[in-house]
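Hi P.,

Sorry for the delay on this. The queue was packed all week, but I finally got your sequence through. Input first:
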Amino acid sequence: MESSPETLRLDRRRAAIVCAARNLFVDQGYERTTLAETVARAGGSLATVYKLFRNKDGLLEAVILETVASGEALVRDVEASGLPPAETLRRLAEGLYRHFLAPDVIALVRIVIARSISEPQFARQFFERTANRTRDAVAALFARWQASGTAMNGSPTFLAEMFMGIFVSDLQTQAISHAAASSQLPERLHERTDFFMTAAGLSAACERRLGNSEWAPDPSVLPGWFTEAMAVPREEGF
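Then the structure:
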């Protein structure tokens, strides 16, 4: 079913407003950006902004959602390449690192941190609606691999949390330090990714299909903290 001309018009206007707001938030900060200034750059009217986003917090949420959706799309695109798990994870780690460590994303994270301190309700809504979506997409990828017979050490949710930690810590550090702490991409990223895959049983040497062989992880290649964590029951999510 084709969208009506009015719907298409609003979609285009919404995209223009989100793009303008993102650029203004990154260039001059959230507090200094006004809705009137956003409209002046994007076109349209304040009435349209209120209709589509309710207020400036709603506009910030739309900007963040677009960023998170890009991370989800990256997971889907890398999976669609049909590569073995080890190579898929290497490409995914590189892609997500570049995506989330981009200067404009770091600037947006800095805004979210500041808003979360002063507005607890904003923080709750942010985490409910945005913060876990890329992680959930990675967990779904692990779950599909597991369902198709790929052996792995840990639940899909737990492994997704550990995988996201490969670069989320750098994202937080860069946001807080204003890039004073350098991130050694790609060397450190590759080392972290390989360490994760070995611990998870998903390295190239560990890739086996259940039913084709009797597979068991070699405890000697797993760090102690990881094997201990495997023995502790975990709830879904963070």
